[in-house]
Protein 1
Amino acid sequence: MFAKDIGIDLGTANVLIHVKGKGIVLDEPAVVAIDKQSNKVLAVGEEASKMVGRTPGNIVAIRPMRDGVIADFDVTEAMLRHFINKLKVKGFLSKPRILICCPTNITSVEQKAIQDAAEKSGGKKIYLEEEPKVAAIGAGMDIFQPSGNMVIDIGGGTTDVAVLSMGDIVTSESIKAAGDMFDNDIIQAIKRKHKLHIGERTAETIKKSIATVFRGSRKEEMDIRGRDMVSGLPRTITINSEEIREALNESIEMIVQSAKNVLERTPPELSADIIDRGIFLTGGGALMHGIDQLLAEELKVPVFVSDNPLSCVAVGTGILLDNISKSGRY
Ligand SMILES: Nc1ncnc2c1ncn2[C@@H]1O[C@H](COP(=O)(O)OP(=O)(O)OP(=O)(O)O)[C@@H](O)[C@H]1O
């Protein structure tokens, strides 16, 4: 075993781990399956994710960090420890420095608890960082210069909008309109319109396969299955991109509004830089069809989807660990 710096993107939907010199070595859903009677952890990550919505009564598959807050701390700790131990088995770790990016909304008590869990798992020195900052670094922005950079990180539980300069956040906002809310919007709309009950996985598949947020930019159809709310029997219906766009409209409008709020609070010199450089989108929600077009039209600034938006934070942890002295915070 050898010491390596490791970076962890402790997201509400996915956990990614970056090891210095190796790149991303772990990428799994932030899900834990638990036996309700004994409180024992039965499975973590990929394996637990397969159980979501399909567990018998005594087993629950939960996402401990859902909504960008730590809903269940013990389970979050168990999950973090499981993933770090998995690296140990692979022979990666011996007293590494660990940089963890966690949701922006967590309390200082929760931050301390995450730090403790990482220490107990063998970390020599633990650093915590804010997600939008690391996402911007991972998207290739040089946030350490005295100029304005804007990032919108659309994750599972939260969307973080931030303007950064000289290595720090100048203005920011964090809202709950993000991937999970989009899935729920789709579930509710299909209930209302088609009287059909669908699960979270189906909603996510719809979101990825036929959804769009920009009117007229995608015209696709898809057959979906669910449970008829009246007869209780399985039923198949056909849905299209436009009805999903309508379902997502309110949540997307919240993201647009949040970006406008942050821009309004941005000092004019930094605003000028943002017009020149554009806004970068990171996080899985950046892959929503048409989101760049819509934001560019609403904000009157160029908008770019970063390369590999799902792994920006993990890549950013690697870059930040390499330049830790630059950050000045450690
Ligand atoms: N192709 C796609 N189109 C739309 N959404 C997608 C796509 N791929 C992934 N997503 C969504 O991205 C979200 C997960 O993104 P990500 O892994 O960046 O979140 P996270 O970092 O775990 O969450 P948070 O930033 O809230 O802590 C999920 O809601 C997922 O459904």
Protein 2
Amino acid sequence: MTTYTPMIQQYLQVKAEYEDAFLFFRLGDFYEMFFNDAIEASNILEITLTSRDGGSADRIPMCGIPYHSAEGYIETLVQKGHKVAICEQTEDPRVAKGIVRREVVKVITPGTITEGKTIDANANHFIGAADQLEDDRYALAYVDLATGEGKVEFVSGDERTLIAEIEALGMKEIVVRERLHITLNEGMAKRDIVLSMENGEGENSPIATESEVPDEMKEACEILITYLKRTQKSSLDHLRPFEYIQKTDKLSIDANSMRNLELIKSIRNGSKEGTLFWLLDETATAMGARKLRIWIHQPLADKTAIEDRLELVSDLIEDYFLREELKMSLKEVYDLERLSGRISMGNASGRDLAQLRNSLRCIPNLKNALFQSGHERLQSFSERLDTCEEALKLLEASVAENPPLSVKEGGIIKDGFNERLDQYRDASRNGKEWLAGLERDERERTGIKSLKIGYNRIFGYYIEITKSNIHLADLTRYERKQTLANAERYITAELKEKEDLILNAEAEGQDLEYTLFCNVRDEMKDHIRRVQRLASVLSELDVLLSFATVSEKYRYVRPQFHDGRALEIKNGRHPVVEKMMDQSLYVPNSCILADDANMLLITGPNMSGKSTFMRQVALTVIMAQIGCYVPCEFAKLPVTDQIFTRIGAADDLASGQSTFMMEMMESRHAIANATEKSLLLFDEIGRGTSTYDGMSLAQAMMEFIHDEIGANTLFSTHYHELTKLDEDLDRLVNVHVAAMEREGRVVFLHKVMAGAADKSYGIHVAQLAGLPDSIVIRAKELLDNFESKQTAVNETSATQLSFFDMHDESDLMTDNDKTVLDALEKTDLLNLTPMQAMHLIMDWQKELKKS
Ligand SMILES: Nc1ncnc2c1ncn2[C@@H]1O[C@H](COP(=O)(O)OP(=O)(O)OP(=O)(O)O)[C@@H](O)[C@H]1O
């Protein structure tokens, strides 16, 4: 049996409790890792792997990093999806009997890391917890540990829907009980999300939730809080009560649609450029940027609430100077939410407190500017801004104007805040002056010019008088300390008293200052709630200002809402496409969905602008329901409850689903959940399967939506056969995106017009894409053939065999023909590039010519 040294035994004991984390074990000035942790971490962090004797036969693998540079290493590990448990010495090694006590003081995980170079303060970083409920529902609770926000919502559907929602919220970590852990494990493994298990019981203290949170959601909140307490081991006072996100108050946009519409992340590379967020983000603070993301994620679905925002935006648009003044003031405001988080978790620095104070100083100006505006609504908005006087008073009195980053080296607390600290400072700053003064006084008093004040480590400060001058001194005032060959050294009570102060001034001053700073920081905890509420109002103001700025810059108009279902957008634009191109080239298009005509079937060639048109309608609806103006000349909108999209290109590679399967799943989700008040966008449904399959599915879906749901629907298709559906479906209207043929080439007009398109121009687009002329000409020939054949088939006498008819007549075919047919049948068109297709066709032609 292996016997380890006591220290390694202690290590193993601690490690057993943190199996899923790298254990950073503090030894002196280093964090050491042992065994497998060391092997893996040395690999990931590219640090040297060594070994040490641990009492057993084999040496133990080990690697270490200096504690003062640990932050970067921890962040690297955590960003790569690992957890790090920090184990500190929790007693002074000088007084410890035997082995020093060590305890894990914090576990840093992908969902709980709040500071670091890779953390973007402009976005929320949520950690979530999920709990499975009955009827295919989950409760999903999530918290941003840095800002203290906590929310809880229902997710309906299967685990895929849950994972999609978790991803849409950008969570890096999700905590569940064991049972759900097993269910989710596989789906999560392929993603950038860490699945953590929490089987601990919550403490009996009730979880803080806003009053209307349903009871069945509390377990999810409890799992999350238990996990956070277990890992953070610090005060979580800044966590706000869980807010229940009620889907009925919100325009719900499922995760796929969020992605398809590129609301927050671009499909191409996941960046913010080219997204709605990118377009609308002119916020001045990180709090504002985060709030904007949340608003885009959850637009409103309550007419009064939407109108309230629009009213404020309208007032702000009207008053350019006010807007500029408010923006200037907001730029001075730091991230009050993250500052509150740091205060509560005990890692705020003096500089953080100064930033908080400086921010609070701006509030009266902001309030005043809003009040002076004369707009009634802005005036009542100003009343919501809390000046947090007590907090400001405390910070004004205590925190120096420009404190340093370090919290232990002084310079944080203001002069005059604490008498004793002032004395220390006086002593250390003026110590030398004071001594010089004393020397001067003593010389005057005694008349001894050579009298001096000196210092040594044994006796401290002393007055030195040469032996020849001693008779001039009043020795009753002095106490002799040391005799030298030609001088005596004395001390006085006054000198000793000052000496204490001078000598210890700096060290003790720093200690005292640290204590005072901690006290102020603790005292600030009492004010956190108010500061957080203020932050929330400020971030709202920031986003509304951003809306006003963007709306004016891009000539957006205020949308009108009504209680019906009709939707009218006159000369609308896709705001992002418009911003990215020369604005004068963008062709505006209207979208009219009347009560008795609320399904558009859109035809038109590839590249004509069908998707752009559909997306612009969805973006207009979303912008209007977050309270922003919209890109068109006029908009009259219903309050939409849900948006569903099935738009190509965003194939979910990570989930391993085939394109067609994804398409069908998204369609199913839309059809199962949509209501009469929803907006459905279906882009080329069914193109992922054979023509007849696809067409039949598309038609069946349209019929279902028309008869059973009645939602406002935009449907684009390549199947011209579907355009006849308007004969059977009353509310279906054909429109097409116009293109023209000029000198054998297609010219896109990007204009949506009444009626169905007359032809599909697919071959023209292939020509535009640069396919060789020989192929284009051949394709045209084939098309003509197919078209005439179809007419012929309809007239029952087939003049030419189709490829597939030939199958039955296999006896007429040569071996070469069969090889080509075989190859053609097995070709997976969806996975071919045009170049590959061309090569294949050339090969087949060669083969056929041989026969
Ligand atoms: N209204 C418009 N004004 C100007 N340019 C436009 C307009 N609409 C679309 N475009 C341009 O045309 C390009 C193609 O548009 P879009 O992707 O919407 O076509 P599509 O018909 O959906 O094509 P496909 O059927 O191949 O998916 C866009 O990238 C954009 O640059």
